[in-house]
TrEMBL record:
Region (Disordered): 375-431
Classification lineage: Bacteria, Bacillati, Actinomycetota, Actinomycetes, Micrococcales
Protein name (database record): ABC-2 type transport system permease protein
Bias type Low complexity, positions: 385-418
Keyword field contains Membrane: yes
Protein keywords: Membrane, Transmembrane, Transmembrane helix
Transmembrane segments: 34-55, 67-92, 113-142, 154-172, 184-202, 233-257, 292-309, 315-336
Length: 431
């Protein structure tokens, strides 16, 4: 494999993507592009100024900066995951982009590596943008000595996290393709990455508590492994270790990567009862079978279960992801309007596009609404008093606490009940 060819193609794809974005709608105008660039610069400078003003009283407190860099590492890993899955979903149907490279003297593996580098550049750019205010503030307040911590707590963890996610995604796609699920292998792999995001997001609070616990001072928290190694073995040893890890992850990703690009089915083979299918229009089928609808529905249901069991937020907010497929519906149905040769009024096209979205939201949202509004189970042998009081509290608050107890959705793990006599437990009781 010739890496130089892959780098040239990746740069070409970046240029093509930038020109396509800048040629959409109002961005074609030079004045609009300059205004958008100026807005981004002003926003970045404002966030940096706010961060500097907030951190100014702690400029000489090294312990605060160590804690800040550690917590930044934990949050940046999550941002890398979010940016990774966002870019993957954005380029899920990337066959059109890859068509640019079919006439070039490239092997399939070089083409795949070039597209991987193209996605990596966008993902790392999005992740780094979230860390710029803190990095600039650290250099302004602490001085050049902060560069080492920025490197080991922000930049290097972002790179390692992205390479690890790439290896997991490629390996999962390769495995699922071998299991006769090739048309949807990429979709299922992305859902696996989303499951990792949910698990990691659920563990973030515990990781933060572990870092602020005086009893665990100096203990290793795995997202901060690079900074932990740099503090104990020196910056040079940490850089050498990261270089080895990055090399291993890169070689493994390229080795596991399929020899050619695996296309993803734009529409799933959705089968419905005849009585239901007979009443569906082509617009309905286009939305219900779309890969974007599939991802949005699965992600929404997973978030619904997570919010229902673990947080205070209303779980119905998670159903907003059901609208993802509607963003692509108008462009996806353009061939249908071209085939008929008839010009339909805009209001009719709007109603045809709105109908399948209402059907989807109704089919998923109605059971979810009934589940949210269902009363909690009554405790066995309990008194007629508050459903979350006394000895019956653990049984009724295992899944959620009702308004008579805490006034909202709340996580009520059984471990929170140790040493408490009654009432609804705090999410962090016992800490």
């Amino acid at each position: 494999m010739r890496l130089s060819h892959a780098l040239v193609v990746a740069r070409m794809l970046l240029a093509f993507f930038g020109r396509r974005v800048l040629s959409v709608g109002a961005l074609r105008l030079r004045s609009v592009r300059l205004a958008a660039l100026g807005t981004a610069v002003v926003l970045l400078v404002s966030l940096t100024a706010v961060a500097r003003q907030f951190l100014l009283p702690y400029a000489a407190d090294l312990e605060v900066w160590d804690l800040l860099f550690s917590t930044s590492t934990v949050s940046l890993v999550l941002w890398v995951m979010v940016a990774f899955i966002f870019v993957k979903v954005l380029f899920l149907s990337s066959d059109g982009v890859l068509e640019l490279t079919y006439q070039l003297p490239l092997t399939n593996r070089e083409r795949s590596v070039a597209f991987l580098l193209f996605e990596a550049a966008i993902t790392l750019g999005v992740a780094l943008a979230t860390a710029v205010p803190v990095m600039v503030s650290a250099v302004l307040l602490v001085g050049p000595s902060a560069v080492g911590q920025i490197l080991t707590s922000m930049l290097l963890p972002i790179v390692v996290a992205y390479l690890a996610l790439s290896l997991i995604h490629v390996a999962a796609t390769r495995l699922l393709s071998a299991m006769r699920t090739r048309p949807v292998a990429d979709l299922l792999a992305l859902l696996g990455i989303f499951a990792l995001i949910v698990v990691y997001a659920g563990r973030m609070t515990d990781l933060m508590w572990h870092m602020t616990d005086p009893a665990a001072s100096g203990a290793l928290v795995w997202p901060t492994a690079i900074g932990w190694l740099a503090q104990r073995a020196g910056l040079g040893a940490a850089l050498a270790a990261v270089l080895v890890v990055c090399a291993v992850l890169t070689v493994a990703t390229v080795h596991v990567m399929p020899s050619r690009h695996l296309g993803t089915a734009k529409y799933l083979d959705l089968r419905l009862p005849r009585r239901v299918a007979a009443h569906l229009t082509p617009y309905d089928w286009c939305l219900l079978r779309s890969q974007h609808t599939f991802i949005g529905t699965v992600v929404g249901l997973a978030l619904f279960g997570y919010l229902l069991a673990e947080t205070e937020l209303n779980p119905l907010w998670s159903l907003c992801t059901l609208t993802i497929g509607g963003l692509y519906l108008f462009s996806a149905t353009a061939p249908l309007r071209a085939m008929t040769g008839q010009r339909r009024p805009a209001w009719r096209i709007y109603l045809l596009s709105l109908r399948p979205q209402l059907l989807l939201v109704g089919a998923v949202g109605t059971p979810a609404l009934l589940l949210v509004g269902s009363p909690p189970p009554r405790p066995r042998g309990g008194s007629s008093g508050s459903p979350c009081s006394g000895s019956s509290a653990p049984s009724c608050c295992t899944r959620r606490c009702t308004s008579s107890c805490s006034g909202g959705w709340r996580r009520c793990g059984s471990s929170s009940w140790s040493g408490r006599g009654g009432g609804c437990p705090s999410p962090r009781s016992g800490r």
